[in-house]
């Protein structure tokens, strides 16, 4: 009994021992796995720490990049603003130089032949009024776009005011117009010299321009006495009369060419033919311009009248109508004047300088007609493009005529100075004529010197009175 119990206990002890060994092995395995997990955890912690260092580094680098980007953006903005300020200052200085140069050129002798009506002055002054009134004089970016147009039209106003003054019926009107123009020029210089500004100088300049426009309005050709029914007909009739005048001038030039070829020879014939051929080309170009201007006027009247008639449209736009009529008259008058001077020239009684002056007059009058036509035309109009192209052709032909006149003058002078073919009697006669001409010029020079001395004396006295020289002498 005891042995069986001992055997059972031995068996239980063996089972416990086996169970203990199994548990010990399991604990060992768990410890090994725990050690492996510890190693993995340590590696993960190390990687996590490394990543945290990298993240911190990237954040620092990102912050530095953001700071650098802000610095570069601010620098770029500062550079752009500095460049804008530099360019704006340069633009202002250029505008001042342009206006100053225009002031010094308005009375240049080469511009004495320039003619333009008060209509052109009023048309050119419109954008000046608009810019002076609507521009923000504190905003340099707005001024950047406005200044070139303002200065361009402002300089044009100076020249057109002088030209309009030449056509004034009364000397007092001419003096007032010139004085008002000089005041506008000085105020424009003040406006462009100090920018940006509070706009006070611009307001003063605007008032001066309005005064100049009022004076110019008094010089407009008056059609107020014409009935409203006749205004539309008057525009069309004047354009047709101009076209007829150009056609008559063209026919007359052809007659002059035929007559010249039958009566002249040699160098004189060559010069006359070139002058007349160029005049013919110029008349053809003007004829084309008149025709296209008429088509443009019809388009303008059709687009602007609405349900009204053409006569009512012309009556409603009274000032524009006056300018159109005046411009058309000037073109016809200039064309007739050119033909008359060309006729005298080929007959040996005229001067090449007269041809140059007349061609410049045609260029000015046709330009005035184009300006009057453009002012109410649609910018995208095909007719307007045709008028502009025809105007360029007139300008090119005018330049050709001026060049031919100068060339012909040189050729004739060289031919006149060639005395190799003269006989003794002819040489003596030419010598006597030259002596008479020299004496006449010497006498004229003497008279002009006396006149110049008198003018200088008068200028000295007037300047002395203005400066108070006489009062200083009395005080001494």
How would you describe this structure to a colleague?
With 476 residues, the chain is mainly α. 86% of the residues lie in helices and 0% in strands. The C terminus is likely disordered.
Number of strands: 0
- Report the portion of residues in β strands: under 5%
Report the order of strands and helices: HHHHHHHHHHHHH
Low-confidence stretches: 466-476
The largest β sheet comes out as: none
Helix content: over 70%
Distance between the termini: 170 Å
Question: Helices and strands in order, then pairings?
Answer:
Blueprint: H1 2-105, H2 118-134, H3 140-166, H4 171-193, H5 200-217, H6 228-263, H7 266-305, H8 310-316, H9 318-346, H10 352-374, H11 382-416, H12 424-467, H13 469-475
Helix pairs in contact: 1-3, 1-4, 2-3, 2-5, 3-4, 4-5, 6-7, 6-8, 6-9, 7-8, 7-9, 7-10, 7-11, 9-10, 10-11
Q: In brief, what are we looking at here?
A:
The chain has 476 residues and is an all-alpha fold. The chain contains 13 helices and no strands. The termini are far apart.
Keywords, please?
single chain; 476 residues; mainly alpha; 13 helices; disordered C terminus
């Amino acid at each position: 009994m005891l042995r069986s119990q001992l055997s059972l206990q031995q068996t239980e002890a063996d089972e416990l021992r086996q169970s203990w060994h199994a548990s010990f092995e399991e604990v060992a395995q768990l410890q090994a796995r725990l050690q492996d997990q510890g190693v993995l955890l340590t590696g993960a912690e190390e990687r996590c720490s490394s990543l945290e260092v990298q993240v911190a580094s990237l954040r620092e680098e990102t912050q530095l990049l953001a700071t650098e980007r802000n610095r570069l953006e601010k620098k770029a903005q500062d550079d752009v603003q500095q460049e804008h300020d530099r360019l704006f200052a340069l633009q202002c200085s250029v505008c001042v130089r342009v206006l100053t140069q225009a002031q010094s050129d308005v009375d240049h002798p080469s511009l004495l032949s320039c003619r333009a009506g008060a209509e052109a002055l009023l048309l050119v002054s419109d954008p000046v009024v608009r810019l002076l009134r609507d521009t923000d004089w504190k905003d340099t970016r707005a001024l950047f776009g406005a200044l070139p147009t303002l200065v361009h039209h402002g300089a044009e106003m100076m020249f057109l005011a002088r030209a309009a003054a030449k056509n004034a019926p009364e000397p007092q009107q001419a003096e007032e117009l010139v004085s008002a123009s000089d005041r506008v020029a000085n105020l424009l210089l003040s406006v462009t010299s100090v920018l940006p500004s509070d706009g006070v100088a611009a307001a003063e300049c605007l008032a001066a321009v309005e005064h100049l426009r009022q004076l110019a309005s008094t010089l407009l050709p008056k059609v107020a006495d014409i009935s409203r029914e006749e205004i539309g007909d008057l525009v069309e009739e004047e354009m047709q009369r101009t076209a007829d005048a150009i056609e008559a001038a063209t026919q007359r030039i052809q007659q002059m060419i035929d007559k010249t070829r039958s009566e002249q020879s040699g160098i004189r014939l060559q010069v006359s033919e070139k002058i007349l051929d160029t005049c013919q080309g110029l008349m053809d170009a003007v004829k084309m311009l008149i025709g296209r201007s008429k088509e443009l006027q019809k388009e303008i009247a059709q687009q602007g009248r609405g349900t009204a008639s053409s006569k009512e449209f012309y009556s409603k736009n009274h000032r524009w109508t006056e300018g159109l009529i005046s411009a058309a008259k000037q073109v016809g008058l200039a064309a007739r004047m050119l033909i008359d001077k060309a006729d005298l020239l080929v007959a040996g009684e005229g001067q090449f300088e007269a041809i140059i002056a007349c061609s410049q007059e045609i260029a000015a009058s046709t330009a005035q007609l184009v300006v009057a036509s453009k002012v109410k035309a649609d910018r995208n109009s095909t007719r307007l493009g045709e008028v502009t192209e025809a105007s360029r052709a007139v300008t090119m032909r005018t330049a050709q005529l001026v060049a031919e006149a100068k060339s012909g003058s040189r050729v004739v002078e060289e031919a006149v100075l060639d005395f190799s073919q003269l006989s003794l009697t002819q040489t003596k006669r030419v010598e006597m004529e030259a002596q008479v001409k020299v004496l006449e010029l010497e006498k004229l020079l003497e008279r002009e010197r006396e006149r110049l001395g008198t003018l200088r004396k008068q200028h000295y006295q007037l300047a002395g009175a203005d400066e108070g020289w006489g009062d200083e002498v009395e005080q001494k």
